[in-house]
Every structure is written in structure tokens, then in C-alpha cells.
Amino acid sequence: MRCLFLFISTLLLSGCASDSVRKSSSDVPSVSDSLEVENRIYLRKLSKLSVYGDFNGDGKQDSICQVTFPAC
Amino acid sequence: MEIDSAPDPFKEDWDKTVVSWYNVQEADVYLTMAGIHDTLTLGSGQGLYCLLNIGDNNTDGKDEIAFVVDYCDNSRVNDCRIYSLCNGKWTMLLEFGVHEDAFNFTSDTIPYFSEIPDFLVKQNGAWVYKDYRQDGWDKPEDVGAFKKISVSDCNR
Which of B37, B48, B154 to mutate: most A Cβ within 10 Å? Predict the structure, then answer.
């Protein structure tokens, strides 16, 4: 009787354990998942435009450049 | 530190990825010129669609610039602004509407726009423009016609 009880208990415990492992591997996002999402962002080089001319009337060539800065 | 790369709007979702990325950066577009302390701040955006020297239209001895800012918005209607240096400060002389379809392209690389097709072009040696926002004309023949750029100088 005691052996039967131990056998059934072992069966139940192993079932719970395998179920919990299955849930953790499929439902909880892992670190590698989040890295994959981040890596899917394609970065492109921003175009930096510039233009030349006499913009201050001193008879010399000036250059104006466009820059994009993040907030300080 | 200057932003030199960003999510590609041709490959990424505009709202979820591109706009939110720029919002996190709080990116601002600036125009700088060596020797001039007044930096022209153009607000939050990706950059410029174009930056043109349109010559000296008001005959004040200085060239004017024209540009269209590539804002992080969901509108295809935008503005071209014409600026000049007035006593060392950037001053807007003219603003008119453009449609961003003018900057569409089919090549693999982004082309350099030396004019704004259909909106700001050079005809017979003079720059002319069309205002996308204009909704009234004096004469029927004026509808859709280019207008000569007429801008005052700093002292007028």
C-alpha cells in the first residue's frame, strides 16, 4: 500500500514538473526573443545635406550644413 | 553627439518604429554655418528633403536658401521655407505649401534634389514656385501656373 502511494505521488509530481517546464519555455519571452525583435530594426545612414553660396554678402563662399541632434 | 543613423522608414513601420524612435531621441534638425552664431533650429524631424541655394532673388547681395523639413508626422502636405541672413540672424522671407509626393523616387538610393519637382524649379535662369496651399486665383490662366519668387530684403 505504501509503495502504491509513493508510486502515484511520484507520477503526479513528475507531471507537474514537466508541465511547468513546458509553460516556461513557450509562454514566457526569453532574452533571445527580445534581442531578435531589436535586431529587426534596420538602420540607415541619415542624409546630411549641405549647400554652398555667398550667404552673408562678403563675396566669399560659405557653406551651410544640416545636422540632427538628440535633445541634450 | 550627432545622430548619424536611424530606423529606415522604407523597411520599418512608420508609427511603431520610426516615429517612436525619433520621439525617444527628441531629435531636432539644425542648420549651421561657419562664422555665424545664429543656428537655425527647425524642430523635431528626420532631416531635410532638400536644401537649395536659390540665388539672390531680392538683390541684397546675399544668396537665399530654400528647404523642406522631413517631419516625423503623418501628413504628406508640407512647407518649403526661404530664409536669408539678416544682420547675422536667419530670417524667413517666404513660405509656401508643397506635397511630399514631389520627393518620391524609384531608385535604390535616395536622390539629391536640386529642385522641388512641380513646386520650386528654375525656369529661364530664374527660380519660380507653386504654392500647394493656394486655393484662390485672380484669373483662370493663373491656376497651376508658376510664380516668380518675390521676396523683400532685410531692410524692407
Answer: B48
